[in-house]
TrEMBL record:
Name of this protein: SMC2 protein
Residues passing through the membrane, by range: none
RecF/RecN/SMC N-terminal domain sequence ranges: 2-139
CDD domains recorded: ABC_SMC2_euk
Keyword line: Cell cycle
GO terms of molecular function: ATP binding; ATP hydrolysis activity
Species, as recorded: Phascolomyces articulosus
Amino acid sequence: MYLEELIIEGFKSYVSRTHITGWDPEFNAITGLNGSGKSNVLDAICFVLGITNLSHVRASNLQDLIYKRGNAGVTKASVTIVFNNEDRERSPVGFENYKQLTVTRQVLMGGRTKYIVNGHNSQQQTVQNLFQSVQLNINNPHFLIMQGKITKVLNMKPAEILSMVEEAAGTKMFEDRKNKAIVTMGKKERKVEEINTVSWNGSEKKSHGKMMTMERWMDGS
């Protein structure tokens, strides 16, 4: 699954409907003059992928994303992202039979949002699950490396970089679960050992009691 088209309308500086095509399946760079809207293209992608931390798209609330905050007659911001979905092995779960995957996110005046997936209204959690099934977790703190963090990343130690990559790829979540499971198993094993010890001590006492009884019987006491 890879990006084919981005459609922006009423979002930040993009007042009119704008189609951005010609995306490369593997690597893309956005270039242009200062103030031409390069950063807003990235913000639009983050927005439609379901970002919840608005500081990453340089906004304090959802209404900030509407062109001139709705004061220029524009009352809705809309971003549509179109993916080529012909590779079934890399398709989101449940969408393997669709050659294209189209996701739209809209924000209306007042901050109400709306998601549309392949022409059908969807819930935010459904969209997030869709993207997470192909390791696109936009709300992961390391999914995006913003401009101010590049130097920090370059100065990271190898172990820190590995941890960041694992978290961005979504594998750290499973590592954490594995570690928790190991701790839980350790507690269960210790509990079993305690039960076995108590059972063994109880059996030993019973055996000792039986031997004492037999000895007394043989002695005639």
